[in-house]
Structure formats: C-alpha cells, structure tokens
Amino acid sequence: MNNKIPNNRAWLLVLPMLVLVAFSAIIPLMTVVNYSVQDVLGPNARFFTGTEWFQSMLNDDALQAAFLRQISFSLIILAIQIPLGIGIALIMPKRGWQASAVLILITLPLLIPWNVVGSIWQIFTRGDIGLMGWGLRELGIEYNITRNAGDAWVTIILMDVWHWTPLVAMLCYSGLRSIPEAYYQAARIDRASKWAVFRYIQLPKLTNVLVIAVLLRFMHSFMIYAEPFVLTGGGPGSATTFLSQSLTTMAVGQQDLGPSAAFSLIYFLVILLVSWVFYTTIMNMQKDKPPHGGA
Amino acid sequence: MSWMVWTVPTAIFFSSIAAMLAGMTVWEIMSPTIERKGFLPIATTRGDRLFIGLLFAAFIHLGVIGFTSLSIWIALAVSAVWLLVLMRWG
User: Fold this and answer.
1) Cβ contacts of B41-48, under 8 Å, gap ≥ 24
2) Structural domain tally of chain A?
3) Which residues cross the membrane (chain B) (predicted)?
4) Residue A85 belongs to what domain range?
5) A193 in contact with B at a CB cutoff of 8 Å?
C-alpha cells in the first residue's frame, strides 16, 4: 500500500466526457430499458407488459441457436487470431525499411470498411468470377457458400482472420518493441533457448496488450454484423445468422421495439459479463505472480 | 421526457441505482475502501463487489423470468440477500 494522500479532484476533468456519454449512451440505454417492459404502439398508446418480452426472448429457439453460433464464432476466431497475431509479430522485421514496409502491408486490411470486406470476399468466393471460388472448382473441390453451411462458416472465419489478425499482430508488435534490450542480453548470458525467451520474457511483457487484443476482438466479433450480412446474408438457411443480425431484423425490419429492447439488454449483459471475466482473470493472473523486474 | 416512455417500475429501478451510487460515494468519503479478499477468488474493493453483485443480480432475474415460473419478487429477494452477503463477506 502506498502512503500518498489521495486527491480525487482530477476526476472533475472527466466530467465533460461523462456528459457526452450520458447523451450518447446512458440516456438511450435507459430508454431501451423503458421500452423493454412495454408495448409501445404510439406516443399515447402504450401498455405495460412487465417481464413478458424477456420471457419470450429467453425461450425463443431461433435466438438461442443464434446465441450458440455467436459464442462458437467468437471462440473460434479468438483461438485462431491471438496465437497467429503473436506469431506474426514475432517474425516481423525489427528495424530498417523492411519494418515500415511490412507494417504498412499488414495494416492494409484494417483500412477497409466492413461492408467492403464483405463485398470483396463475396466476389472472391464466387464460382464463376471469383479467384478463390473458381480456383477451388478447377481443383475439383465442391465449394459453394450459398448452399453449404460448412463452406459458409469456413469462409466467414477466414474473412475475419484476414481482416482482424493484423490488429492483434500490430498490438503485439508494439508490445514486443517496448521490451528493453537488457532483457535479451541477460537471456543470452544465461544461454536461454528461444522458447524460454518467449515464455519468460516476451509473453509476460505482452500480457497488457493481449488483454486489449482479446477484449477488442471478443467485443468486435460478438457484435459482428456487416461482413457476414454482405457475404452470406445469414444463410444458407440461418446457418450464419449471428445475434446482431437477428436483432436488426427484429428491431428495424419488423419494428418489434419491445421484444428487441429486451433482447438487446440480454445481449448487453452477456457482453458485459464476458468482458469483465476476461479482464479480471487476465489482470489477476498478472497480480499473483511475483513481479519480473518491475513489470 | 415523454420520448423516454418512462414507467413507474423502471423509474424506481433507476432511482435505486442512482441512490446506490450516491450512497457509495458518501460512504467512500466517510471511510475509504480497503481492497481485501473474501470468499470471492479475487481481492475486491467495495465498488467491485457492488458491480459484481448487481451484474449477477441481473442474471438471477433473467434466469427466474426465463426458465422458472417463480415470481419476480423471489428473484428480487434472492438478489438483495446475495448483494448483502457479497458486500459483507465477498
């Protein structure tokens, strides 16, 4: 424990931001809560429904299926993107013009808007004019994302890995760059193997950026909308319909404001819970260990 | 404010949350929190425990509403007890 006298007056500087957030997030969220317990038909025609919407949303088969799909999707892309991102960051050149060139090349996918990524892959995977679709067909492999659910899933995961692994790689790269050279010198004196250097120097020093990477990637992927919507439209059938698409169909397509408000609150609580668990777990893993040279 | 379509129950809900936050602020000024370890696997401050308590209370309510035919008041009672236990021994 430190002996400093706490001065919380600096918090006042956050006030303007708080006002902004109140307008853009807190008040709208309160309105959503209000909508979730009523059937609002018009300005003067609304009926209190209590917990009815929550009950029907929690027991909706289509939504439960979309929820399971969403969880599997997020877990799969995290399991691929995090190790891949670390791997790419480790082999990226450290200095010179090569470093800049590789950075620019790697960042390119991040600059492309979501719906454009969807369109690119939609064309890329077409059997008649798309390079990948045509190539696979010429090789004699049956591949059709509008008919085969497995193909659609593989393509969406491939697309997300292509689009977002660079973010993980860049975060890890910046984390690796901030490790002082003295650590590596000490490791060389100890004749540490490459694996030992990675396990006991690089990985612990990457923890902070990995927390950010995992949280960002989880939240992004859990809210994914435009890419699968453009690529597959949620099909074939409902094989790739994720939560946000179900929500949009309900709220914007069918104007069922009460049920979709209840559903968004459940969605929000799940994201809040998972993000909190991730954050706390990773931060505590760090706290329990004795600090390695002031980490 | 009519566009926010307020109802009495939601107004009571948000007032209680606001009262809790105000109460926590006063409590913090009176006697600042000390991070400690209770039955939870992590060391927590008072505010951490309130957050954990409210988040789990939300899921208790969802569970009762969605998957049982019990009254929502039972969920509220269970959550209140859970919140008190967590604040004291968590």
Assistant:
1) B41/A284, B42/A280, B42/A284, B43/A287, B44/B90, B46/B87
2) 2
3) 6-29, 72-89
4) 61-288
5) no
Which tokens go with B51? 């957050």
Interface of B with A in 46-85 (CB under 8 A): 51, 55, 58-59, 62, 65-67, 72
pLDDT in tens, A31-52: 999 999 998 887 778 888 888 8
Distance from CA of B39 to the nearest CA of A (A): 15
Q: What is the CATH number of the domain that holds A200?
A: 1.10.3720.10
Residue A295 lies inside a defined structural domain of this protein: no
Kindly state whether residues A67 and A46 are assigned to the same domain: no
| ipTM (interface predicted TM) | 0.91
Which tokens hold the place of A50?
Answer: 């209590």
Closest residue of chain B to A281, computed from CA coordinates: B42
Task: Report how far residue A136's alpha carbon sits from residue A151's, in angstroms, rounded to the nearest whole number.
Answer: 12
Same-domain check for residues A167 and A30: no
- B84 vs chain A: nearest CA distance in angstroms? 20
